[in-house]
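Consider the following input, taken from an annotated entry for 6-phosphogluconate dehydrogenase, decarboxylating (Pelagibacterium lacus).
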Amino acid sequence: GKADLGVLGLGTMGAMLALNFAEKGFDVALFNRTVEKAARLRDDTPDLAGRLHPQASLEDFVAGLATPRVIVLMVNAGTAVDDQIDALLPMLARGDIVIDAGNTDFNDTRARNARLEGTGIHFVGMGVSGGELGARHGPSIMVGGDEDVWARLRPLLEPISAKFDGSPCVAWLGTDGAGHFVKTIHNGIEYADMQMIAEIYGIMRDGLGLAPARMAEVFADWNTRGLASYLVEISAVVLAEADPETGAPLVDLIVDEAGQKGTGRWSAIEAQKLGVGATTLEAAVSARIISSQRGQRAEAATAFGSLALAGSDFSADAAGIAELESALETAKIIAYAQGYAILSAASAEFGWNLPLGEIARIWRAGCIIRSGFLRDIMTAYESGGEEANLLLNPAFARRVETGQAALRAVVAKAVLAGIPVPALSAALAYFDDYRRAHGTANLIQGQRDLFGAHTFKRLDRDGVFHHQWPAV
Ligand code: NDP
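Applying the prediction step yields:
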């Protein structure tokens, strides 16, 4: 018999996705550039070997698939995807579906959709979140492409996806690049969330002098309430871990340089292109960049010294810890509001009609930002929330109103102590800016009109004006 689908690219993610499909009862053809990997995957997984069909050539791989074919590409984003499409195209027929499941720039996905349009071969950009474990046991899956293809993919993807209360965390989100775009913004929100957690950790370490084991208890406790989430949960696990050799807290031995593979940066770039202020995502991307400049930071620390502990007004008593919790929760709401504002703008720009509540629904399990909080976002959109920004939704507005005092206090104390809180302060600044009916851009418009005759509008009259400013 022929295989139900094929997985091409058996690196970390592809191998795990293939095993996930096989476990759910699908026959999976396997192919990899380094050909031996396919047979090795089958041999290493005796319990699923009957449904894993390694192939020695791309021709055999394609020939081994039931038609119309479904091929999942899980190779590195970029030219590898184009190379595989080029190699596959001559062997495919009308109705076949090629899915790019990697972390691809949605602009590339749009271009590939355009390229394959009219060939009868469907191209689907699909975001997969949850890392290696997610791919193996149930990722959150964001599907783009033509809507009629979704009917065919649904029976394959629902079984392998994460489930939240039995509901599969996979959905078709819109045409062409919609799935990859939503995955990109997922990662941008993930960056902001991780950065804000790390800033709170920085306050606990440099402002309060808490031991990692104690911080682990605090995060584990927070994980039982409003902040309950995978990222807070794993923060507690990381902080509690001891180095097996020295017994020292492992977190103290890890070099403070964050890696990044691009999707967080793309989210900030796309936000800017769409004209959406996404300051927390931008702050998180910049913070990772600065983290990677470790040598320069050491030099600057010598030159300027760093403040902390001595000058800190933070308190480790119950009220002080509760203030940190409330600050993080409030900043998180603001970060997610920014992420959703990017999704709204893209939806309008690209004509996707993104189902915003549905996106929160499929993020509730499987992906890195899964959290109880996403249920609240889902509810906000599904109860008809038409607000331009989540912060204007009554339920979130109340929470931010209550929590803003804590966020303000935490940011103020951190600033005075010299503890950097770029994402938390960006969240607060955005909130203060967003809720200020009378801003300061009137001065900017005056400057622009003076140096470039860019004109301005007036509060007291309709129309567009240019003023004869005194010569400077
Ligand atoms: P790996 O590096 O583990 O695997 C890469 C795979 O791509 C290998 O099978 C490799 O083949 C193949 N490949 C690379 N270049 C080419 C090429 N030019 N032609 C053919 N095959 C090629 O990567 P991952 O599995 O981690 O990631 C795959 C994709 O999934 C990426 O887009 C990544 O961003 C995305 N992703 C990764 C996540 C993660 O947690 N790791 C989470 C979500 C998405 P070979 O064995 O021959 O080298």
